[in-house]
From TrEMBL:
<keyword id="KW-0443">Lipid metabolism</keyword>
<dbReference type="GO" id="GO:0004348">
    <property type="term" value="F:glucosylceramidase activity"/>
</dbReference>
<dbReference type="InterPro" id="IPR017853">
    <property type="entry name" value="GH"/>
</dbReference>
<feature type="domain" description="Glycosyl hydrolase family 30 TIM-barrel">
    <location>
        <begin position="1"/>
        <end position="226"/>
    </location>
</feature>
<keyword id="KW-0746">Sphingolipid metabolism</keyword>
<protein>
    <recommendedName>
        <fullName>Glucosylceramidase</fullName>
        <ecNumber>3.2.1.45</ecNumber>
    </recommendedName>
</protein>
<dbReference type="InterPro" id="IPR033453">
    <property type="entry name" value="Glyco_hydro_30_TIM-barrel"/>
</dbReference>
<comment type="similarity">
    <text>Belongs to the glycosyl hydrolase 30 family.</text>
</comment>
<keyword id="KW-0326">Glycosidase</keyword>
<keyword id="KW-0732">Signal</keyword>
<dbReference type="Pfam" id="PF02055">
    <property type="entry name" value="Glyco_hydro_30"/>
</dbReference>
<dbReference type="InterPro" id="IPR001139">
    <property type="entry name" value="Glyco_hydro_30"/>
</dbReference>
<keyword id="KW-0378">Hydrolase</keyword>
<dbReference type="GO" id="GO:0016020">
    <property type="term" value="C:membrane"/>
</dbReference>
<dbReference type="GO" id="GO:0006680">
    <property type="term" value="P:glucosylceramide catabolic process"/>
</dbReference>
Length: 230
């Protein structure tokens, strides 16, 4: 398995998306959407090399860190900002376009997450980020992302929700599974290990007890993220 950023992430050497525009410009129909050198000369060749080495396919989990700044309430890739509701459809089509561009270049994506660390909106973030509440994510997945994937021929692409620390489990998953529209599109719940020392692992047991058919997948862990760590 491997994790694939949709656009730039906090480990990227520059902040970028696939539809960055001058301040004040918008592109609701994504006419200026384009993969970047990072995709063409780094990510895809690495995926191809790993696939060749294994002589088998790799299950890729793709995650978006931020929408283009013109789609967001704060007009920035980083900071405290959310997706403007007027662009909920455009953002779903943006994800579809990413999958289609990668497919055209021979790379199939096994699953996507609805958003990397949606709770980043709770505090000012210095990395690429975009905030969601669990209710908003349920509405967007059920009304926009899931239908857009189906309509574009990506109905088999799995959708993992949360993609954040386990502090908000099982409540986050419950919000998605209790929503009639989003429930049918949720394939699993993605978790990060940060702050695990504050939250007992029993929340994973409780999540599994309530939703035994929903896989729990750890998608991100790293060291050195705290100021006191070298």
């Amino acid at each position: 398995m491997g994790r694939l950023p949709i656009g730039g992430c906090d480990f990227s050497t520059r902040p970028y998306t696939y539809d960055d525009l001058p301040s004040g410009d918008t592109d609701e129909d994504l006419q200026k959407f384009a993969l970047q050198p990072e995709d063409l000369y780094h990510k895809i060749p690495l995926i191809e090399a790993a696939t060749k080495a294994r002589n088998a396919s790799i299950k890729l989990v793709a995650s978006p860190w931020s929408a283009p700044s013109w789609m967001k309430t704060n007009g920035r890739i980083d900071g405290k900002g959310k997706l403007k509701q007027q662009y909920w459809s455009s953002w779903a089509q943006y994800i579809v376009r990413f999958l289609a561009e990668y497919r055209q270049l021979g790379v199939e994506v096994w699953a996507i997450t609805a958003q990397n660390e949606p709770s980043q909106d709770l505090s000012y973030s210095i990395i690429n980020a975009m905030g969601w509440t669990m209710e908003e994510q349920a509405e967007w997945v059920g009304g926009y992302l899931g239908p857009a994937l189906q309509d574009a021929g990506f109905g088999s692409t799995k959708i993992y929700v949360l993609d954040d620390i386990r502090l908000v489990l099982p409540e986050w998953l419950h919000a998605l599974m209790s929503n009639n529209a989003s429930r049918g599109f949720v394939s699993g719940v993605a978790v990060h290990w940060y702050l695990d020392f504050l939250v007992p692992s029993s929340v994973l047991d409780e999540t599994h007890r309530q939703y035994p058919d929903v896989p729990i997948l750890y998608t991100e862990a790293c060291t050195g993220q705290w100021p006191w760590q070298p």
